[in-house]
């Protein structure tokens, strides 16, 4: 064989190898895309509804605050035989719901059990300002092999306090309604926000526990969780975990930041030197950029909420009346406290937990998407939308976006 022929033969071999590798790579790429679309088709994505409406409680009046309901009922599931669960942390799954939320509750429980709790077996605690019906309790217990408890919220922790100026509160509700703000005229929604901000972790059923995972009706989870997030928090000195960070509606928190600045001035000892203020403010704390962790999903340490700094913070804000005169939500209250009182490294973004509430979705990107066998559509993830605060969070931690 001449040198020319040998060279030509070598070229042909290289061309064959190149096309073989190229076709293999192309096939793998199409396979991944095909699997993504199959998962999406197999999992029906549809918008969910909130568990609170503006007329759920009918006529919300201050007079209804007089009734005190301090009892709590406890029901434990009795399915047998009991499986051996992997979950070992001092933790619980917490659900605030009403009897009318039953179908949404069952949907959320099925999603959580399928993607996580069927292996770990953490107990469920469901709270309501009214007694749960027998139908509700039996339906819920049928969805899990873990223990289930049902608790009644004390009236003093739920209803609008007597000291709130109802005329001023009504004026605030009407103003928000004129601006077409969601839950503008709902007193029950404000009750819920105040309860989640300052009282849920004091409920008798939650006292034995340190960590909690908040669940809401009509939410979806999309990834198989391969580890215990409660253990992750404990083992890595994390206090607060989230999946979605977005901007709050400015008109609902018009005076909140001014109140926060007053608190910081009066109690500088509670502000952590390595805090996450840069997540909340773009100008060193002069104004609030409206960023917060969306608290309908949160995995956190209740000892933080029960601690001195947060207790004083909530009491200070509560006396301002902003839960009722405006529409302060538990999401900005929790977020601001966590960002100011904790070391910023005690916050954690659970990127690998795919989650949807209403029409807002967090879908993990690679490699977490494949590791968790996720079924969500990554294109729909809020992480890349204009009103996502995740870029600010990453910038605050000096991470690349």
TrEMBL record:
The keyword ATP-binding does not apply. One of its GO terms (cellular component) is Golgi apparatus. GO terms for molecular function: alpha-1,2-mannosyltransferase activity. One of its GO terms (biological process) is cell wall mannoprotein biosynthetic process. It holds the Pfam family Glyco_transf_15. The active site is at 298 (nucleophile). It comes from the Eukaryota. Keywords: Membrane, Transferase, Transmembrane, Transmembrane helix. The chain crosses the membrane at residues 6-30. Belongs to the glycosyltransferase 15 family. This is Glycosyltransferase family 15 protein. It comes from Lentinula guzmanii.
């Amino acid at each position: 064989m001449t040198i020319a022929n040998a060279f030509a033969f070598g070229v042909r071999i290289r061309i064959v190898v190149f096309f073989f590798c190229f076709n293999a790579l192309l096939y793998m790429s199409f396979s991944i895309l095909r699997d993504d679309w199959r998962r999406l088709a197999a999992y029906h994505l549809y918008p969910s509804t909130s568990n609170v409406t503006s007329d759920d409680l009918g006529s919300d009046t201050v007079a209804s605050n007089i009734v005190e309901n301090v009892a709590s009922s406890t029901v434990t599931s009795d399915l047998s035989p009991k499986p051996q669960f992997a979950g070992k942390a001092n933790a619980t799954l917490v659900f605030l719901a009403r009897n009318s939320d039953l179908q949404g509750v069952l949907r959320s429980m099925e999603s959580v059990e399928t993607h996580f709790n069927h292996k770990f077996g953490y107990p469920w605690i469901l709270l309501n300002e009214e007694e749960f019906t027998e139908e509700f309790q039996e339906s819920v217990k049928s969805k899990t092999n873990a223990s289930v408890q049902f608790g009644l919220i004390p009236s003093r922790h739920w209803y609008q306090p007597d000291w709130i100026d109802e005329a001023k509160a009504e004026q605030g509700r009407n103003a928000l309604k004129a601006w077409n703000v969601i839950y503008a005229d709902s007193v029950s929604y404000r009750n819920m926000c105040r309860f989640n901000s300052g009282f849920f972790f004091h409920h008798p059923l939650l006292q034995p526990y340190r960590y909690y995972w908040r669940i809401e009706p009509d939410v979806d989870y999309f990834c198989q969780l391969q580890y215990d997030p409660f253990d992750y928090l404990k083992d890595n000195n994390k206090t607060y975990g989230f999946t979605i960070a977005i901007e709050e509606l400015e008109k609902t928190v018009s005076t909140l930041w001014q109140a926060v600045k007053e608190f910081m001035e009066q109690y500088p000892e509670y502000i952590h030197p390595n805090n996450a203020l840069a997540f909340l403010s773009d100008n060193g704390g002069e104004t609030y950029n409206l960023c917060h962790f969306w608290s309908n999903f949160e995995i956190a340490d209740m000892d933080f909420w029960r601690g001195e700094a947060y207790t004083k913070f909530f009491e200070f804000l509560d006396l301002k009346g902003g839960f009722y005169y405006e529409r302060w939500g538990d999401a900005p209250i929790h977020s601001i406290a966590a960002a100011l009182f904790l070391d910023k490294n005690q916050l954690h973004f659970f990127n690998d937990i795919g989650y949807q509430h209403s029409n807002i979705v967090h879908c993990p990107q690679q490699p977490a998407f494949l590791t968790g066998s996720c079924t969500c559509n990554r294109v729909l993830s809020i992480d890349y939308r204009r009103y996502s605060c995740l870029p600010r969070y990453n910038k605050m931690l000096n991470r690349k976006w």
